[in-house]
Every structure is written in C-alpha cells, then in structure tokens.
Automatic annotation (TrEMBL):
Protein name per Swiss-Prot or TrEMBL: D-3-phosphoglycerate dehydrogenase
Keyword Amino-acid biosynthesis in annotation: yes
UniProt keywords, alphabetically: Amino-acid biosynthesis, NAD, Oxidoreductase
Domain of life: Bacteria
C-alpha cells in the first residue's frame, strides 16, 4: 500500500521531531502556493494538507478535493470552514480542545505581557529615539503595572495563565467568563463584560472567535471603559470592532491598544489600524507571533504529527 502524501504550506520546515514521525509514515513535500487556484490544485493532489495561518480554506476551495486531512497546529479555526470539512468528509487535526497538552504551551500568554509592557512603557518610540542617536529620557515617562486593575475577558487556559502572571506583577485581577471557574481566591469575578470594563485599568482579551463573539468588543462595550484604559488582544482580530476602536482612539477615549491580531489578516497593508499605528505611538501591532516560539512550535508540531498517526492507524 502506497504512503499518503502530505503537502506542507507556509512552513519552511516542520520541527525535526515531528518530521521524523511524518517521514516514517507519509510522503512529505513542502509547497509554495500563491493563489487560490494553486491552493485548490494542491488540495486535489495531496491526501493531507498541513499549514498554519497563511490560507483561508473556504467552502468553494474545499469542495470536491482529494485531501482528507487538514492539519493546523493552532486552537482557533476561524480560517477554516469547519462545516464544509464536515460536509465533505475532511478531518481537521488541530489543537482545539487539547486542554491538558496546551497547559505546557505558554508563549501567547508571555507575549501578552510583552505587548502590554511595550505599550505602557512607550518602548516603540524609545527604541527609535535611541537608534536615531538621541538620549532624552524625559520624553518617555511610562506607567507601572503594580496595583493596576487588569480585566481578563475569558478565563480559559490562556486567560488564567495571564491572570496568574498579572498576580505576580502585584496587579488586582478581575475577570469575566460565561462559565463558573475555580480559580485563585484573589481574582474577582464580574457579572458581565460591561461590569468588568467599568472597574479596570487594562483589558486583556482571551476569547475564542466564533459567531457569538464576533465584534464582542464594540462601541457599547468600549463606552464602559475610562479614557485611561489600555487594551491588549492576543486572541483574534474579529473579536474587536476595529472601526469602533479607532473612533475611540481618535477621540482619546482609550489610552492605547496593543494587538497581535487584526481582522482580515494577513491582508493588512491598508488596514485602518496599521495606518493609525504608523503615525501614533499608542497602538502597537505584531504579526500574529504570540505562539510562534521555537519551543511552542516544536511541541505543537510534534503533538499534531503524533495525533495524525494515531487517527489514521485507529
């Protein structure tokens, strides 16, 4: 029996530990796909397709393809039409709901604080200032985290890790989650998103993205924040109505926004927030790198490779 063929797109090289497993069980090939036609053709040619966030797999692309397994080492699947995969008999192999394993993957929680500290300490401009030959510390007085009130929106795996990191900084931790949670007795549960927003200095967003959470941070919610609040988003861009957010920023009704995600990414060249960030210091944006560390990539790719082999050999 011939081996199944895996195409890998948007990844220079799968981690060595995962590659070894894949090479023993499948024919592994790296491909470069620069159009939807090329993507459709690839899905017709391979049995298994592995990618990260570089494609959007819509129903029309997935319809009548040969590929039977979609692999993606992430938790959020908003870039894949999950219902279409179900309809067409395509199995998605991802990190979604892999709660125990994901407790050891903390890169995004760490990046949340990297973004937050960069925003409140004004390091974006400070870096440029020194690199241009200047040294005027009076221009860069920042803000401390100690004793600030942080609101964690979504106390799932990442939200709880961020809450614990915040506690270590000496912050007061407030949270809202639709589920009752057993957590640190020092963390204060709020009754709603609006209740949370009315109490805090910093809002950190840790929700899954779906139809129910689309634009959940909108004008109505933003109105509950005071004008000194900072917002950090390392979840998904579609959670925030970026038009409403930009309006608040322009009116100076929000202190700043740090995000690793944008709605519509990766097509963001003329995105309203990137244009704003280019000429304003109170918005900083990174290109969805929260979980992109050597350690997290190695762990997650090995997990996905093992999970695929187990599914196929069941």
């Amino acid at each position: 029996m011939s081996k199944l063929r895996i195409y890998v797109s948007g990844i220079d090289r799968i981690a060595d530990s995962a590659s070894k497993i894949l090479a023993e069980n499948f024919v592994l090939e790296y491909v470069s796909l620069n159009s939807n036609d090329a993507l459709k053709n690839a899905l017709n040619t391979c049995d298994i397709f592995w990618f990260r966030l570089n494609h959007k797999l819509t129903r029309d692309i997935l319809e009548e393809v040969n590929c039977k397994y979609i692999l993606c080492a992430v938790t959020g699947l908003d870039h894949i039409d999950v219902k279409a995969c179900e309809d067409f008999g395509i199995t998605i192999v991802s990190l979604k709901n892999e709660t125990e394993f994901l407790k050891e993957v903390r890169a995004t929680a760490e990046h949340t604080f990297g973004l937050l500290l960069s925003l409140i300490r004004r390091t974006k401009l400070a870096f440029n200032h020194v690199e241009s030959g200047e040294w005027d510390r009076s221009l860069f007085r920042g803000t401390e985290l100690y004793k600030k009130k942080i609101g964690i929106l979504g106390l799932g795996r990442l939200g709880e890790i961020v809450a614990k990191y915040a506690d270590a900084f000496g912050m007061e931790v407030y949270y809202f989650d639709i589920m009752e949670k057993k957590t640190n007795d020092n963390f204060i549960r709020c009754n709603s998103i609006k209740d949370l927003c009315s109490k805090i200095d910093i809002l950190s967003i840790h929700l899954p993205y779906n139809d129910d959470t689309h634009f959940i941070i909108n004008r109505e919610v933003l109105d509950c924040l005071n004008n000194k609040v900072y917002i950090v988003n390392t979840s998904r861009g579609g959670l925030v109505n970026e038009g409403d957010l930009l309006e608040k920023l322009n009116k100076k009704e929000i202190a700043g926004y740090a995000t690793d995600v944008l709605f519509g990414e990766p097509d963001t060249k003329n995105h309203l927030l990137t244009l704003y960030a280019a000429s304003n210091e109170n918005v900083i944006i990174t290109p969805h790198i929260g979980g992109y560390t050597y350690e997290s990539v190695d762990k997650t790719e090995l997990f996905i490779a093992k999970k695929l082999v187990n599914i196929i050999h069941e």
